[in-house]
Design goal:
Blueprint: H1 16-27, H2 35-46, E1 52-56, H3 63-68, E2 73-78, E3 91-94, E4 107-113, H4 122-132, E5 133-144, H5 149-156, H6 159-169, H7 188-198, E6 200-208, H8 219-234, E7 244-251
Parallel strand pairs: 1-2, 1-4, 2-3, 4-5
Antiparallel strand pairs: 5-7, 6-7
Length: 253
Amino acid sequence: MKRRGAADMNARDEPMGTRHLFERYYYANSAFRDGTGTFHRLCQRYLRPGARVLEIGAGPGNKTSRFLSGFVELVGVDISDAVRSNGALAARCLGDAGRLPFRDEAFDGCVSNYVVEHLTEPERHLKEVARLLRPGGVYCFRTPNLWHYVTLASRLLPYRAHLKWANWLRALDRAHDPYPTYYRMNTAGAIRRAARQIGLDPVVIERIEAEPSYGRRHAALFYPMMLYERLVNASRHLAPLRMNLLVVLAKTG
């Protein structure tokens, strides 16, 4: 389970060489919404105020925890003991995404941010989420799209190379090492199939391409990645090539 992703960056995190580029082409635009903000608005649309919500992969603290704690009763779970230092949580515990330590129908909603790609058995995870949700409850999550160039490169690179390059490209010099990725439920089709087999209704599966997080290190990376972002956002036919999947699954009945 991840603790901090590229989308948790802000303008002050940019290296000096690219800070002005992100400011000029993204942050200065009043209509700009980063990927994290877009995900948060999706969560807010489907999670009612005061609901009891489980954040899976909450880690030691992150923007999503802080955002959700402002309007729901937030419980956090993570495989790392660092979750105990997440001050935004009303309660916290250790647990694996495939075997969550809570009673049946304990939550009105579940949320995860960049967790699904790390799971070796995502269907087992969805079964656990379905077990924990009350009827009418929702699971909101964000995960990379398998068909994006960053994801494809990550999948092809040996894990040791991934460790070396992932944080460097995103200028996350002080971040933890990336967890191993498997991408076993990282297409819209795979999510729909798995959800329906388990009895969850795919309410939203949206593909988005926000600012080029992997272009933070140098302008030579930023410009081609920005052009890619402009291209895939210009046509709905290219939507399957956008970076992230924003998903809402509902437990009906």
